[in-house]
Amino acid sequence: MTTKKDRAALPRETTAPTIGIDALSWVADPCRPIDAAAAAAARQRQDQLTKPRGSLGRLEEIAIQLAALQGTATPTPDPVHILQLVSDHGVAQEGVSAFPQSVTLQMLHNIARGGAAISVLAKSIGARMEILDLGTVTDPGPIQGVRSERIGPGTGNIVREPAMTEAQLVKAMNLGRAAVERAMDSGARLLIGGEMGIANTTPAAALAAGLLELEPRALVGPGTGLDAAGVAHKTQVVAAALTRHVTPERTPLELLARLGGFEIATLTGAFLTAAQLGLPVLVDGFIVSSAALTAVRLRPEARAWMLFSHASAEPGHRRMMEALDADPLIDLGMRLGEGSAAATVVPLLRLACALHREMATFAEAGVSEAGEHD
Fold first, then answer.
1. DSSP E strand boundaries for 187-253
2. Gap between the Cα atoms of 208 and 157, Å rounded
3. Phi/psi-derived region of residue 116, left when phi > 0, alpha when psi is between -120 and 50, beta in every other case
4. Active site residues
5. What is the pTM of this model?
6. How many angstroms separate the CA atoms of 363 and 371, rounded?
7. Nearest to 283 by CA among 332, 223, 324, 242
8. Using CA atoms, how far apart are residues 190 and 199, in angstroms rounded to an integer?
9. Which of 12-26, 66-80, 129-143 has the lowest mean pLDDT?
10. Rounded to 5, what percent of the chain is helix, strand, coil?
11. Structural domains in the chain, sorted by start
12. CB-neighbour burial class of residue 141 (10 A; exposed 0-12, middle 13-18, buried 19+)
């Protein structure tokens, strides 16, 4: 593990290739505009339902937002597609996680067997889940139910080198694009991105700090359960990575390559593609939000295609939500990742759409509206 003295002596990274937008030309494609007419029709219907206007609060907003994104006055979140991404991180060598790196591969098997939280949740809500191995340190070979899309045996240690080469970044983002295209071919109407990889809150914090120009302490948290000393050490590790890689002229793509993870880059590509092709995204917690933030920095209009599931217990998540002008739907103190909080919110979306679709209007029910008199 690199010591604090060692990190202080590390030079700024200048040798990695710059990432040009031409290497990922599709990133420049416009996002699909939301359907204002569908939103207006949905709002008009909400105003005619047998309740005081606005009395269902954010449930009304959810239905209207989904209507605008799906181009229909009667939206639905179903079918739900979960894209579950697993990969390792070189920065685990710095001792930033309470768990050993071997847990990533163990959890890949657990997710595939149905024993992980996201596996149970996906089954419970009837969602289709596609699991991708993007690069565990040890190649597990074929695993039933897992799509092998290995980019490498984990990313580089961001304290000492860029997380990814240009070729690896391009591959990761293109994998995200292809995954969304498969989801849409299967009929998906809502996308959830999930992730698993020991130490991945460290690159997520570093990337967010770099994009938002914030001090590491504003983004770094306990992750897998670090104590105060562990969080302090992790903050120093992120600071060293920022010193090495962040300069004012570096683009979001370059910061993603230098500081991110394979799953963060793949999710970034997925979120951009979803916005371009017209697939709403339900954003999960800390790591997934760093990908959402990167996608929005690349294409600001992608923000309109995102709903935000929960307020993560990871402290830095609030800063990302502020930057994205997001108001998460629930706060249950969750910080597991895997897309678990987003999956938990799906029944709420279903209820919002059911109320919107099935409640009677004042006219249908023969009920007087506010302000009407005999």
1. 190-196
2. 17
3. beta
4. 338
5. 0.93
6. 14
7. 324
8. 28
9. 12-26
10. 50, 10, 40
11. 4-29+78-343 (3.40.50.10210)
12. exposed
